[in-house]
Amino acid sequence: MKHYSVLLGESIEYLDIKEDGIYIDGTLGRAGHSSEILKRIPNGHLYAFDKDETAITESTKRLLEIGDNFTIIHKGFEELEQVIEEYKIPAIDGLLLDIGVSSPQFDDGERGFSYRYDARLDMRMDQSQSLSAYEVVNTYSFHDLMHIFRDYGEEPFSKQIARKIEQARMDKPIETTFELVDVIKSALPSKVLNKKGHPAKKVFQALRIEVNNELHALEQVLETGIQHLNDQGRVCVITFHSLEDRIVKKIFQKYAKPEKTDKRIPLMPDEVKQKPYTLITRKPIVANEEELDENHRSHSAKLRVLGKGRLNHENCKKES
C-alpha cells in the first residue's frame, strides 16, 4: 500500500523553510515530510527522529537520493533536548511532528497495532523496548487498565472492559489482537456492537498511547522545541485525535496568548505585555476535499502552527 503523508503541502508551507535553516522532523516515518524539507534546505541540515528501525532503513535510502545533509536519530522525539546538546545545535528554524502510527505500521499485521489483523499483542514503535501491549493487558491491575481506557481512549465502557480482561486472563494470558477484540466485545452491550465503527478502536488507541508513552512525549518535545526556536522559527504539529490536539492547543496558548489584564484599568496597546510567540493558526488546518478523497486517514488530521516573533505581513495572509 502507498504511504500517504497527511497534510503534506500545508505543513511544508507553514514551516516557511529557509535554505540554510536547521529543521527537526520528530516523526520520520517513511520520509514523506522529511524529503520535502530536505529538498528545500541545500545549505541547511535536517535532523529526523524515529524509533522504528524499518522506517529508518527505508527512509535513509529515500533521503540519500536528495542529499546527505541530514542526520537520522534512532530515538523518540521526547529526547530532543539531549540530542540538541549532543549535536551542539545552536537553535532550530522548524520542528515538524506528525503524531500517531504511520500507515505501514498499521498495515503490517505482525506489529500488533491493528484490530483488523490477528497477531501477538505488541504495539511497540521501538521494537527494542520491553513494554508491549501484551504486558499491559496481562499484568496491569484492573484499576490501571480502567484508567488507561478512560483517559487515553475516552472509552465509556472502560470499567466493564477492564473487568472482562481481568477475568479472561485468570484462565490464560490474552496473547493476540483477535483474542483481545473478543474480550472487548464480550463487555459491550449489543446496541454498542451494532453501531458503526469497530468496537475495539478506543481500547487499541489507549493501549498504543500507554505502550509508547505518547502524550508525555508530546508535551516534552513541544516544550523543548518551542524554547529552542530561532526568531521567525515554526513548530508545526499534525494530530489525529482530541487528546493530542488538546495538548498542542494548550501548550501553544501558554506560549502565545497575552497575559490577562484587568479590563477596568485602561492600557495603551504598547502597554499590554506581549508573548514572544504567535499563534499562526488560530484554528486548526484540516485536509482539503482532494486529500480526503485520496486518503481516509486524513479525515481526523488537524494541523496547528506556532511561530516565534511577531507576524509579518506575509505571515498574516496565511493566518487562519
UniProtKB/TrEMBL annotation:
GO terms for biological process: rRNA base methylation. The keyword rRNA processing applies. Pfam families: Methyltransf_5 (PF01795). The keyword Cytoplasm applies. Keywords: Cytoplasm, Methyltransferase, rRNA processing, S-adenosyl-L-methionine, Transferase. Its main location: cytoplasm. It is an enzyme of class 2 (transferase). It is found in: Cytoplasm. S-adenosyl-L-methionine binds at residues 31-33, 50, 77, 98, 105. Coiled coil: none annotated. Specifically methylates the N4 position of cytidine in position 1402 (C1402) of 16S rRNA. Belongs to the methyltransferase superfamily. RsmH family. This is Ribosomal RNA small subunit methyltransferase H.
